[in-house]
Hints:
Residues 55-422 form the GH64 domain. The chain is an alpha+beta fold. Helix content is 14%, strand content 25%. It folds into two domains: 8-217 and 396-434 and 450-476 and 499-575, Thaumatin (Sandwich), CATH 2.60.110; 270-369, Beta-1,3-glucanase, C-terminal domain (Metal Transport, Frataxin, Chain A), CATH 3.30.920.50. The protein has helices spanning 221-236, 270-279, 319-324, 336-351, 379-387, 500-503, 509-512, 516-528, 567-570, and strands spanning 8-19, 33-37, 47-48, 59-64, 71-78, 85-88, 94-95, 106-107, 116-117, 124-128, 136-142, 148-152, 155-160, 175-181, 186-191, 196-197, 201-206, 211-214, 244-246, 252-256, 285-287, 296-300, 304-307, 314-315, 361-362, 413-416, 420-425, 472-475, 545-555, 573-575. The chain is globular and about 65 Å long. Mean pLDDT is 71; it is low at 1-52 and 430-577.
Amino acid sequence: xxxxxxxxxxxxxxxxxxxxxxxxxxxxxxxxxxxxxxxxxxxxxxxxxxxxxxxxxxxxxxxxxxxxxxxxxxxxxxxxxxxxxxxxxxxxxxxxxxxxxxxxxxxxxxxxxxxxxxxxxxxxxxxxxxxxxxxxxxxxxxxxxxxxxxxxxxxxxxxxxxxxxxxxxxxxxxxxxxxxxxxxxxxxxxxxxxxxxxxxxxxxxxxxxxxxxxxxxxxxxxxxxxxxxxxxxxxxxxxxxxxxxxxxxxxxxxxxxxxxxxxxxxxxxxxxxxxxxxxxxxxxxxxxxxxxxxxxxxxxxxxxxxxxxxxxxxxxxxxxxxxxxxxxxxxxxxxxxxxxxxxxxxxxxxxxxxxxxxxxxxxxxxxxxxxxxxxxxxxxxxxxxxxxxxxxxxxxxxxxxxxxxxxxxxxxxxxxxxxxxxxxxxxxxxxxxxxxxxxxxxxxxxxxxxxxxxxxxxxxxxxxxxxxxxxxxxxxxxxxxxxxxxxxxxxxxxxxxxxxxxxxxxxxxxxxxxxxxxxxxxxxxxxxxxxxxxxxxxxxxxxxxxxxxxxxxxxxxxxxxxxxxxxxxxxxxxxxx
Length: 577
């Protein structure tokens, strides 16, 4: 997943191991997620009871809105200063996974207590975090998940549940996850649907005097999404309904993104691609990189797009390139300008905005023009945004590309010194709020997901909680969800709890390009950039064991940065799902 209009640089990586899949250098989509760990073979060292540099009074709250007593949470994070994956136990301690026999995945035992059991419907389980959330994920499942440790010649890896491989023991378990990163005081978090849509999850970030939220899907969102995909299938005769996966009762519980069924949509954009090359041949196309630099002008040749910068041409894409945004003209390179153009170009194909009025400038169109009727577009993304209660959340790899912050649909929330990251399992509400406008592609509109509300003093935590144990607590009082607020801050200095994107909807690139904060941010990105070097395939013969990469990205968007608090965190490292 990419943040801030796709402006990404590779900063670090975690490796994953599969057999027979093609090697990719960026944006790999895969059936298993493996996080690299430094595992120990000594059982006594696997669980570290002491707390290591805990954040100041920061908790993860898990609100169970499902009528199920089988809900579990798995908190995965990284150790500061290393690529070591950690799990957080129900007691709020650190668990370091233990490796076993070479090449054989060892399931983390139930006794490790890493599967945090949530209480009954309406209860809240609280975990006081012993460490900062670094490149983290919180998996939520209706049932237990098998998480394994896989030692290989390249190191040991944490094997996470598969959403697409029916041979995986977790395949029939409903689950989802949210992403979070809090290297210092500033936190970024978001839901993601880039690979699949699963268990409905809402997200809230709670500060001393306010709450920001992304509502996610309603409790019946999967069924509604699948019904919408059936309707799209009846219009264009492509198998959109086949993206839905049913449980044993025949009810859908997961929806894959089209990139994971790309063989069924292999020619979907072919005619549209040809039309773009033909209809924009006279006018060409321009790209706004949104970094204060001049617009990039490009022309179309027979099988490539040639721009005044960078010097390398962009090959004409295939449909399969568009679904993943990571191959053909959209493959990541060492040239930042090339990557930024590729992000905007790919987003325009997903949303089918290239042939709309003004489509020869990207990004340019507002969200109410996305996914027009009568032609190809990413119907998974279109219908997903319709179903989402507030229409927010990444639905394809560059769903954060936008002409201005007011057109944001990515669902990213961020701010300084949050006290709580609250995950609402099952969604905020049993149905959409009545005052929510429908997102109807070319005829609807999306709303901002941010809300600023007072929270009861009883929900705040003092520093002593970071040292106390046990740290898992359960409340029998359901937490009501905040309703979106239309109030916007008017002071010249943004409140600490507001992200710069939400605070500066009218900021132009020219007004912030010279800002010293932007310069500091650019420097931090440059310093964090690393080249990705890949191990060679297995030397044992036969089918090679190919090491793919789960890329962690440094992201930035200088025109929206005007304050110095969180500069290090703005160049955030996040999972690429």
